[in-house]
Amino acid sequence: MVSDRDLAHVDIGRMLKLEGPTLREELATPIIGLMSSDVICVEPKVEIGDVIALLLEHKIGAAPVVEAETHEVVGIISYVDVLRAVQDVLEKD
Going by fewer Cβ within 10 Å, which terminus of the chain is more open, N or C? Predict the structure, then answer.
């Protein structure tokens, strides 16, 4: 998974100064060198309260939703999704 934190490690200023073949070589770098492999994820049936705790504990803004058996990514849950769910509950009261 590539996050905004991973992209923060890219020296965009240096890349903007590159030209021609050097820039093409830089852009052809495999993404595996940039991405995070130790991704924090949740299962589809996890409760919203647990998602909130996970996001706060790890100081992350989103987590992929992954089926435990198949490891298939079925979505992503973000802090915005959590806030919407909380708002829905508050508006019902």
Answer: C
Q: 60 near 68, Cβ under 8 Å?
A: no
Q: Identify whether residues 23 and 43 lie together within a single domain.
A: no
The distance of Cα 13 from the centroid of its chain, to the nearest Å, equals 23
59 and 20 share one domain: no
pLDDT digits (tens, 9 = 90+) for 26-59: 777 788 888 878 889 999 999 999 999 999 999 9
